[in-house]
Amino acid sequence: MENANTRIVVKDARFAYVHLLEPRAAAEGAEAKYSVTLIIPKSNEAEITSIKAAMKAAVSKKFGDKPPKGLRNPLRDGDEKDAESGEYMKGDEFRGNWYLSASSKKPVRALAGKARLPATDEHLQSGNYGAAELNFYGYDAAGNRGVAAGLNGVWITRKGEPLGSGATDWGVIEAEDFGSSGSAATASMSSDDVF
To answer: Class assignment of domain 7-167?
Structure first.
């Protein structure tokens, strides 16, 4: 496993929790990082096999032939349910998928479309699809041990249905709904491809 590669390109993933224009701290007091969560269909077995091989290489690189038990794993099951409530841990968009989060302390190169031009905030929305270059690495700090995914770059390849708060179509809401005396809003959000 010594020669196995920890660096891979995930070729077809849906992007969620996209923070690539400005770094964001995952928790109060934590270091702000550029990050994205990749949603990968379970049916894409070749991609998952590549991810697992890169993770194993990272474990071997950090911990050698006898890794400790209980290592944290960045690859999560979108069908996982809470043991107590029986509720899914993630939203519907994660069903039938694996997911993992990747981050970088430094800005990452983000490209969009066939021309691979620099991505804008319009491209870097949760729900769009693309590729991401990742580098898996092992860590052992403050009692926490595991594997994490470093983010090297992304390429947005196609538009997807928006996820989260970006999914509201403000064009269908009338101005009266907000207590103003204006007429109904007539503009609708463009459904044109951003590329």
So the answer is: mainly beta
